[in-house]
Design brief:
Elements lengths: L1 H19 L8 E6 L7 H17 L4 E5 L10 H6 L5 E5 L22 H16 L8 E7 L5 E4 L7 H4 L3 E4 L2 H9 L3 E4 L5 H7 L4 E4 L1 H6 L8 E4 L9 E6 H5 L3 H8 L4 H24 L3 E4 L2 H24 L5 H16 L2
Parallel strand pairs: 1-2, 1-3, 6-7, 6-8, 9-11
Antiparallel strand pairs: 3-10, 4-10, 5-8, 5-9
Helix pairs in contact: 2-11, 4-11, 4-13, 6-12
Length: about 350
Amino acid sequence: MFDKISKMVKGAAAATAILAVTPQVASAEMLTMSSWVPPTHFIHTDFLVPFTEKVAEVTEGRVTVMILPAPLASPPQHWELARTGVADITWGNFTYEPERFTSMWFAEFPNAGTKAESQSRALWRTYEKFLADNGVFDGVKMLAVGMFGGGQLHHASNSITTPADVQNQKFRMGGPIQEQLISALGAVPVAAPATKAYEMLESGVIDGSLHTMESVVNFRLEDSLKHHTIFPNGFYDAAFFVIMNGAKWDGLRDEDKTAISAIIGETLSAEWGKNFDAQSPAATEKLAAAGHEIVDASPELIAAVNTINDQMVANWIIAAKAAGVTDPEAMRAFYNDTYNALAAE
């Protein structure tokens, strides 16, 4: 499938390049980017588009990035799209390929924090220190990583404040941490990307869904999800990537790699987090103004989640060692310490 898509992309890119060529940019390197959110979503308008503009700016037009008009595959396939060179640049969620990215689960546990910029910067530093040489990341150039400032629990028709309220309710979720949380609380996990939540709620397949507050608004779920349960340090989180095909990166001019290097890494990771830090409070205000129920999780529910979390961490340490992480405890402690220091600034 990827071979067929690759030919289509190259044809589209070539056509665009012919139409856009001018004497000043005739020798420009044009990179393709596949994105799976609508062009109205803030990740597109406020993060991806500014990044493409910055690439053109710092390379003085020698490198440009074209965001393709439609995603080349489903969200879980976007790592492979870039690794195999079907698209030059992609972004996605590590948790959509849990077996491949076991090493990253630590970023998704409850209580991972609610300041997305600090989280994203801490995650970048953790990746650089502990994971950059792990073979699972071979074949790509990591441009950024990011987190979203704490996901919460949302329900279509009921208030959720205690463990009893969760029993037997069907929740859309993504990835092993969310699945373990939902199952251990006595609910029914239904695995699907966030982009599928709307149709699943409309058809009654699920009773609720796990999202950040901003996702309820930005994925147009506010008419379906009207009850929101807030955990003070996050019910769960998610870890994201922005990557480029490794060979494509290696093939860029040295001067362009140097220029782009100044705007990626922790810098681009921080930009990811800043966007979520702006979006979620605004979404919470909008939902409250619309009459949605926004409640705090009870101490009983928080305690239940913390007990589950302790066991998940213990299980993950074993799995992470099997996935090639030498000292998972040290890696998780480094992330937590770094996040706390950055969040306190």
